[in-house]
Structure formats: C-alpha cells, structure tokens
C-alpha cells in the first residue's frame, strides 16, 4: 500500500515535472485558478448564510458582502485565467510529450519493442494514452481544487455542529467505490489491448488510400468488416461489462450519501427548533451538502482521470527505464574511420525475440573491406535478417560480428549507424519535397543541393526528378493538393537516392532496393553502384551489400553469398559458383532460361 502511494506520488511528480518543463507559468496559473474556483463556491455560500443571519439580527452586513464579492471575484478570476491558459498549456504539454516519446523510441537501438507482443502492446498503449496525457495537469489541478473545496466545505459544516463530520465519511465511501470502478476499468483496458491493437491496425489498413485497390479487387471489405465487428466484440464486451458493474457499485455509494444528506438536514432543523442553530445554519447546510456531493463527484471523476493519467505516466516511466536499460547495453567503442580488413561473422545464430526458430544458423562469413557482396537465396532464407544484424537492430543469439576485429556489440550503435547507409525493400514514402525525401538520407547535408543532386545521379533517378513540375522542390504524395503522385518504381528511385546521401559509408546495405525497378535498369544500376562503391571503397574500405533475387544483376559482385534455410550454402564469385555446379548454378541456369524464353 505504502509502496503503491509512493509510486503514485512519483508519477505525479513526473507529470508535474513534464508540464512545468513545457509551460511553467501557464501551469502555475492553471493550478492556482483551479483552486480559486473550487474554494470560491463554499466561500460564497458561507457569505450568504452570514448575510441571512446578519439581516435577521439587524447586524452590519459589510463583512458578509465583502466575503461574497471576494468569492465571486475568485470564481470569475479563476475561470477567466483558466480559460486563457488551459488550451495553450495542454498543447505545449502535448508537444513536450511528443518530443519525449520520439526521443525515447528512436533512441532504443533495437526493434524488439515492435516485435515482441507484450512490448508492442505497451508501446501501443503509450501512443494511444499520450494524447490524453496532455489533460494530465488539468486533472491534477481539478483534483487539487476539489480537495481544497471539500476541505473548505468540511470546516464550515463542522462549525455548524461537530456531528456533521460524518457526512464527509460517507463521501469517502463514494470515493472508495469510484476508486474500485477506476481500477477495474484500467484492468479491462489492459486485458483487451491485443484486440484493440489489431483493431487499430485494421482500421488504419482500410483507411489507407493505397490499400483501396487490393481491398476492392479481392472483395475483402466483407471479410474485414466481419473481422472488425468480431474484434470490437472482443475489445468492447469486457470493457462494457466492467462499466455496467462499476455503475451499480457507484450508484450504491451515491444512495448511501443521499440518505446521509436527508438525515443531516433533519438534524439541523431540530437544532434550529431547539435554538442551538440559526436560520443561516440551515441555509449553510442545505447549500453546502450538495456542494460536498459535487465535490465528491469531482474528486471521484478526478481520481478516475488521475488513475488513468498516472497509469499512463507509469507506462512512460517504464519506457524511460526500458530506453535507459537499452542504452546501458550499448557498446562504447567508436567505429573505425576506415575498414582495414573487413567484417568477420563467426558462429552466428539468431532467433527473433519471442521465437525459438533460428532465422540464421551458424553463419561463418568474411566480408572483405572494399568488396561488393551479394546476398542471394530463397524467400525466408535469412538475407534480410543478416542485414538487420549488421545494422545493429538485433543482437546475435550466438556467435558474433567483428568489425576489423572489434565486436560489433562493443561499438556504439548510434555512431555505427552514422557510418552506414541503407536502402530497404519496405522503404518509406516520405511525402516531403523530392529534395527533402532524398536529403533525409543525411540530415546534416539535407539542404546541400550538390549532395542531393549527386545522390540522384548515383541512383539514376535524374529522369524521375526531371519529370517533376518543380524538380527537387516538388511536393511528393497525393495527400497534398499540390503533391505529385509517383509510381512504385519512382518512389523506389527516390529511396535509393536517399541511401546515397552519406558520402563514405563503411557499410552500404541495399536490401532489394530495386525490386520495383525493371530488370534491365536494375542490372545497369547495380553495375554502376558496384563501380561507384569500388571508388569510395579505395578511400574507406567500405563494403556494399546487395540483396537481390535476380541472379543476372549480382554476377558482377566480388563475392556472392548463397543463403538456404538460414545457413550459408555457398560463397564465391559468379564464375566460381557456376563452375562448382551447386545450388547457385542451378538457380542461375533456371533464371537465365526463363529470361531467354521471354
Ligand atoms: N520480425 C520477425 N519476427 C519473427 N520472425 C521473423 C521476423 N522477420 C523474419 N522472420 C523469420 O526469419 C526468417 C528469415 O527471414 P528473412 O526476412 O531474413 O528472409 P529473406 O531471405 O530476407 O527473405 P526474402 O527474400 O523473402 O526477403 C524467416 O523464416 C522469417 O519467417
């Protein structure tokens, strides 16, 4: 219990820290305004009761009127100040949270948090809740305010008769029932997160315009909508059932309070009849108890909201811890300035997090400095997995990768990534200007037009850019009224140009970056990439890795690695492999025959 309270307090401190960092003055104004509004209502009630007593005893009314005016001023002042600052404060907090989430998630070197279901669920929960966290300070202010208001009501009730203390105890019963309901809701939300995550993914899938063609062609809408209805049921029914039970529990708490209210009024009327209380006291109790009820509702809502907000902050704390632990595991060594010998892979096996199946099995491989190496093999043979390990997205399950003798695990992965460049098969269509979408490949030189043009030339993307209405300044993407729609192959050229922005990478990873480009162009492109790479390789010893399914286009590679079922089946030059008459030779002959038949 104590640990739980300390944990909540820690989360509250983090929330306040976040919001004060985002908007210190606005937060202060919002918190003070909330308290002023909450205290103003009981203050006005107290002033009215005093005024009634003063008038009935023909006593001076100046003090009561002054208190009434002060109460009104506090209320309107608070409302005006809160209205003026609330929206900007929430927007700034949202901006601060977005920044923190981006820094944390992109700072995590690996990708396990996207791949392991329980981590992915937690990430989805954080992304979803972070939108609501911007209201965190407002709920905190509200909670502080209702506590202050309830405190003021309590003091005034006790001033009428000490027994009226009992009413707040009834209020605590209501708070307890509300707390139970809040906790049950939070548990139901967490338990239904997998269904929610799938539903979210499906609804994004059907909204995405580029998926429209497949959805219509295969007539998937009926199946998808049935699946979505099913997921809604899986997600919503447990949540609704908790909501129904919570409503019953909360209603019971409220009934207990209403009975107490009736008894309290009867009790004060008796006190007045016995001459032990004034007419003003009746007015005070009649007006204050509903305020206590409202304050209790306010506290209950506030606690519910706060439970939710603090659960989100707890998730944020988890993410901070996860990112920090991932950071601790980072190597500290600097990558070499140039590769002298190359990359040695020894006894490397790898299973994706949360699975037992080995995607790579006991791979031993030497990637010589300065070489152009091709990875070929069937679907699922392990080519992309090795690319991902070389980029430091995963750690080997067994064995190691040595970069000029230094284990890759000991090298600072962020600095390593700054020394590599990549073009992936599932590249991103950045709907920026063409120049930006390419320049992103090296953010430090994004506005360097010469560098962007050089990258365009290396990717043979000049024809794509020259057809754009404003060249590199053209907005890409059909989501913009002025945006230009590109074909799959054209987007891929832009992505390829992006991978050539880094001037002298130690490792250039091209994982089927040309799958959407016609075979003839791919062949010419790979020849040019290999020629250009060998020029830079003389300076840096950089290695270029090409993954492709088209054997004819990789034949110029210095080394061809053939993958089969997660293992390296063969290695050699094209000549050596065809002479050996093994698996590569068979596949090459098969593809060559198919092309000749065309
Ligand atoms: N994120 C993942 N989680 C679990 N298993 C994965 C994941 N990605 C790939 N795999 C598995 O790892 C194995 C190797 O996949 P990989 O993507 O490396 O093959 P590939 O040779 O690049 O195939 P392709 O030519 O189809 O791109 C496959 O059996 C695949 O099912």
Automatic annotation (TrEMBL):
The keyword ATP-binding applies. Its main location: membrane. It is found in: Cell membrane. One of its GO terms (cellular component) is plasma membrane. The chain crosses the membrane at residues 12-41, 61-85, 140-159, 165-189, 251-273. It comes from the Bacteria. Keywords: ATP-binding, Membrane, Nucleotide-binding, Transmembrane, Transmembrane helix. It is a multi-pass membrane protein. One of its GO terms (molecular function) is ATP binding. The keyword Zinc does not apply. Residues 343-590 form the ABC transporter domain. InterPro entries: AAA+_ATPase, ABC1_TM_sf, ABC_transporter-like_ATP-bd, ABC_transporter-like_CS, P-loop_NTPase, Type_1_exporter. This is ATP-binding cassette subfamily B protein. It comes from Stackebrandtia endophytica.
């Amino acid at each position: 219990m104590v640990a739980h309270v300390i944990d909540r307090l820690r989360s509250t401190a983090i929330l306040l820290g976040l919001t004060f960092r985002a908007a210190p003055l606005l937060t202060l104004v919002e918190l003070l305004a909330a308290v002023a509004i909450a205290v103003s209502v009981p203050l006005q009630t107290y002033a009215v009761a005093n005024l009634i007593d003063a008038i009935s005893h023909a006593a001076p009314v100046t003090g009561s009127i002054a208190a009434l005016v002060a109460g009104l001023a506090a209320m309107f002042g608070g409302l005006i100040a809160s209205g003026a600052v609330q929206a900007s404060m929430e927007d700034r907090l949202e901006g601060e949270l977005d920044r923190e989430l981006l820094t944390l998630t992109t700072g995590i070197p690996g990708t396990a948090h996207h791949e392991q279901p329980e981590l992915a669920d937690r990430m989805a929960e954080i992304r979803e809740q972070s939108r609501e966290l911007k209201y965190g300070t407002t709920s905190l202010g509200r909670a502080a305010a209702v506590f202050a208001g309830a405190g003021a009501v309590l003091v005034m009730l006790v001033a009428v008769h000490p027994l009226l203390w009992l009413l707040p105890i009834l209020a605590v019963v209501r708070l307890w029932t509300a707390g139970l309901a809040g906790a049950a809701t939070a548990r139901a939300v967490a338990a239904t997160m997998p269904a929610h995550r799938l539903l979210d993914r499906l609804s994004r899938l059907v909204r995405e315009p580029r998926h429209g063609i497949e959805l219509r062609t295969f007539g998937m809408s009926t199946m998808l909508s049935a699946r979505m209805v099913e997921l809604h049921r899986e997600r919503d029914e447990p949540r609704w059932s908790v909501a129904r039970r919570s409503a019953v529990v909360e209603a019971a708490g409220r009934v207990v309070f209403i009975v107490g209210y009736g008894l309290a009024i009867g009790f004060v009327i008796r006190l007045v009849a016995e001459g032990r209380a004034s007419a003003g006291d009746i007015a005070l109790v009649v007006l204050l108890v509903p305020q206590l009820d409202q304050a209790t509702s306010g506290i209950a809502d506030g606690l519910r909201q706060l439970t939710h907000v603090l659960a989100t902050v707890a998730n944020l704390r988890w993410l901070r811890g996860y990112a920090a632990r991932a950071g601790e595991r980072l190597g500290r060594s600097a990558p070499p300035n140039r590769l002298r010998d190359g990359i040695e892979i020894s006894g490397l096996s790898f299973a994706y997090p949360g699975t037992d199946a080995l995607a790579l099995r006991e791979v031993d491989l030497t990637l010589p400095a300065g070489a152009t190496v091709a990875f070929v093999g069937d679907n699922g043979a392990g080519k992309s997995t090795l690319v991902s390990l070389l980029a430091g997205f995963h750690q080997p399950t067994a064995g190691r990768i040595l970069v000029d003798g230094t284990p890759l695990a000991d090298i600072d992965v962020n600095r390593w990534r700054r020394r590599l460049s990549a073009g992936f098969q599932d590249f991103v269509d950045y709907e920026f200007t063409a120049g930006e979408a390419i320049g992103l490949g090296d953010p430090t030189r994004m506005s360097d037009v010469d560098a962007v043009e050089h990258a365009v030339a290396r990717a043979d993307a000049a024809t794509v850019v020259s057809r754009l209405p404003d060249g590199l300044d053209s907005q890409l993407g059909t989501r913009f009224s002025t945006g230009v729609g590109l074909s799959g192959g054209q987007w891929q050229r832009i992505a390829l140009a992006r991978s050539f922005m880094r001037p002298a990478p130690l490792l250039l990873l091209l994982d089927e970056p040309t799958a959407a480009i016609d075979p003839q162009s791919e062949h010419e492109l790979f020849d040019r990439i290999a020629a250009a790479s060998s020029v830079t390789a003389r300076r840096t010893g950089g290695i270029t890795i090409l993954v492709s399914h088209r054997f004819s286009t990789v034949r110029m590679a210095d080394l061809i690695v053939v993958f089969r079922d997660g293992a390296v089946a063969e290695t050699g030059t094209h000549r050596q492999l065809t002479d050996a008459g093994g698996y590569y030779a068979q596949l090459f002959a098969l593809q060559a025959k198919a092309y000749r038949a065309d």
